[in-house]
Amino acid sequence: MVNPDHRALAATLNPDKTRLFPRLKLLTMFRLGLFQLGLGMMSVLTLGILNRVMINELAIPATLVAGAIAMHQFVAPARVWFGQLSDARPFWGYHRTGYIWVGTLLFTTCAFLAVQVMWQLNASQIQWGWSSSTYGWVGVLGLVFTCYGIFLSASSTPFAALLVDVSEEEERSKLVSIVWSMLTVGIVVGAILGSALTKGLTPDTLKFGINRLFLIIPAVVCSLAFIATIGVESVYSRYSGRSTFSHNPDAVSIGRSLRVLGASRQTGIFFTFLMIMTLSFFMQESVLEPYGAEVFSMPIDETTKLNAFWGLGTLAGMASTGFLIVPRLGKQQTTRLGCILVSVGFGLIIAAGFTRNPTILKISLGLLGGGMGVATNGAISLMLDLTAAETAGTFIGAWGLAQAMSRAVATVAGGVLLDLGRSWFHTPILAYGTVFGIQAMGMIAAISFLNQVDVVEFRERSRVAIAQILQVELSD
Fold it and tell me: What is the domain partition of the chain in residue ranges?
């Protein structure tokens, strides 16, 4: 139990705890979702279109492509640092907003630079083959995606922490439904815009069309980030009222934040669950569009639309979960249901490949997306509950680290497993089925860790750790 004196000392340290904050309005929830909408659009550009062009049109090996793109996920440890930094050091007068704006401007710029490096890589491949110069351009591409990941961390981690700051526990499942539904809307919008802007491209017009795409959409994403967050933190943020450290930034050191983070074994359990679930979710990202191209003979604009089908399914699952399923089943049971549905969805995608019917593939992707929506909403709602207000940015950074590292491994693993599947089997459907089958088994494995998650235990352990830190601070 936490000593009552510690609470009194915390209140003395932070007199703003008595301030009353307005409840988050539904319209503001949708406005916040515009930031996620932009991230969804960017994911289509990088993991969809850019990935497809390099593998299919430019004939770059899938393992090299996946490895370069995945670099933006391998820098995920930066998320913990940016989260802790936004807890401790306001930027432009705010704990979250300044980081969001600057990070967005920089990661969208990096996306355009990645395209320019891609053209140089292709030119070197044509002129010199797979020489040291060509591999050098692969390294440069990986470096650009590394910078992309760092700046993405600088914006997305403070944004997720902002969601904790501006909301109360009872409204978070609805906030998650809206904000992460908008992420899926972004994937759908990005897929539709990408399809429209790449339709009819030929080898002669490919470079112009892709360059135009990577100018227009990043500019839109920057605008959305500004509209989504302007004025929200100043009106709705409860950070100064919740955090016992907000008036003493030096108290929020990375060491003390990590002490709170590691105070409960639940942190490690949930971290492991998130990693396995995310890994199992996203291995298909680097192989889905090539799957449509090779097994179903679909052109670029059609494979780009595949993102829209699983995106619409995810949107339906996500939007309904926070309002209908979570209130009835609870966050943990909802997440478990979603994991089972995702596993079934991957089985359907494998079965669709044997029919070679694009319509069946699209239906299967829609069903897979529905399961993803249910699992994602439940997991994110649970994640926000497993976050200590005093170090919200650090916790969000840790959860982001688990997800990002898993997505990085997933991106590479998808490409590697596809190449391995091609060496094992002479039939493309069996090569791709190797990837999807392992994903289905991974979702079942994730459930075993989910069953051990206990929010009550986490909160008690975190309170004790925070009280101990406060006691040290006030005795100095």
Answer: 26-475
Q: Give the pLDDT score at 226.
A: 95
Collect all residues with Cβ–Cβ distance below 8 Å to 139 and sequence separation of at least 6. Answer: none
What is the C-alpha separation between 53 and 360, in angstroms, rounded? 24
User: For 36-58, b where at least 16 C-beta lie within 10 A, e where not — what string?
Assistant: bbbbbbbbbbbbbbbbbbbbbeb
Cα torsion through 374, 320, 37, 22, rounded to 10: -110
278, pLDDT greater than 50: yes
Buried b (16+ CB within 10 A) or exposed e, 287-311: bbbbbbbbbbebebbbbbbbbbbbb
Residues 263, 200: Cα–Cα separation, whole Å: 56
CATH architecture group of domain 26-475: Up-down Bundle (1.20)
Do the beta carbons of residue 470 and residue 13 sit within 8 Å? Answer: yes
Give the C-alpha separation, 349 to 360, whole Å. Answer: 8
pLDDT value, residue 464: 61
Closest CA to 243 of 419, 12, 14: 14
Q: Model-level pTM?
A: 0.69
**125-177 pLDDT, tens per residue?**
888 888 899 999 999 999 999 999 999 989 988 998 888 888 877 777 788 78
